[in-house]
Each structure stands twice: as C-alpha cells, then as structure tokens.
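pasting for the record
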Amino acid sequence: MSVEQSIVEIKDWIIARINDSTFKEDVPLPSEYEISRILHVVQDDVERALEELVTEQLLSERFQQGYFVKHEPTFFYPIQNLKSITTMIEEKGYTAGSIIISQDPEKPSIDDKRKLEITDDRNIIVLERIRTANGAPIAYCLDKIVDESLRLQCTSGQLSLFEMLKDRPEFQITSATCEIESISYEPHISNMLECAPEESLVLVRQIHQNKAGRPVLYSLNYFKSSQIKFQIKREMK
C-alpha cells in the first residue's frame, strides 16, 4: 500500500463519500478523469488510489463498467460458534425458509463412511435443501445424517436442522469441525441460488459431533458470497 500523502488523501476523500452514502453500491463512481478534476490531482494518483481500495475490499471493479462501492454482505456467521443458518437469518430480521429438494436414504460413499466413521452396511439419510431469507435463496445445503431411520418432518420448511435433531438425544450436536473453501462457479448450485455470472460461492464443510464425540451429521453448505461474511477470533497462545 502506498505511503504517498496524495494517494492517502484521494483514498480518504473516496471513503468519506462511501460513509456518507454519496457513493452508493449500485452506481459507478466518477471516472478517474472526473475525480482528478474535482481534487486537482494527477490521474495516475487516482488510478493508484482506486486500485488500493479494490485490494482493501472497499471497492470492486466491474469490467467495462468502472468502480463500485463493494457490496456489504447481509448475513454474519461467526465460525467459532455453532449457529444454525435459521438463527443467522432470523437475527437479521428476515424470515427463514427451506425449499426441500429431496430427503432419501442412500448408500454412503467411502468418503462419507470415513467422515461419519461408519463401519457397517447401514444407509444414511441425505437431505438436500435451498435455504431462503424472505423467500430469496442464500444457501444450498446438502446434509448427510448417519442414521437412515431418522426421517425428518420438513413440511413447515422453516425449522432449523439442529432443532429437528434435538428430540433424539444421540443426535444432539455439541461440536463441529469446519473447513471453508471458495468455489468460483458450480453450474447446478449457482443456478439454483440465482447467482450472477461473476458471483462466487463459499463452501462450508462441517462434521458435527454429539456429546459422545461421535460424528452424526456431515454438512456441505454453499453460500452466495455476496450475502454472507464469516469471522473468527484468534488468540495468541
């Protein structure tokens, strides 16, 4: 990042206009030439300032359209806490919903058996859903449950999976291991989530354990990157 005072002043001017809503998310910023004329600075400095604000994720650049205020994700998901997607949606004042695509017993793959520590020939339940907020899709969820006898009552379309599992003590989840991966595009899922062509996905894989430390649920949750922000607090040991 630049330490030149002129670059910093241009960045501060742009940030101040983002903060007071002069520059809005869906309206392109003035051109580099226009900003240079307003601030009486050279155009090269404006270009460098804009590039740094893109690097710092305050602006985004759209091909042949210019620079825009970066969209702030609607939903916040703290990774260090076990929180259902339903809770995340409702905390923002939205109505949480589910579109159930399928719920079927299936033979687990070798990978499923490894993750769920299955050593016999049992089937698992595979639940496929789209999670919605005020009816708009925000996440695709593929959940694999270790016991095929567990048929979930999903008719309301709004219950949290954690809530549906809590009536079975052996399925009460107390911990989870989590991996997060960026996915540029996945045709099937991106279409179901109504993603823009340039919009990426964030895949959150979680293996959920019960009180005894046994894995009972393996989840693959694909979120629209424009809709969600993750945070984790790390401490020096």
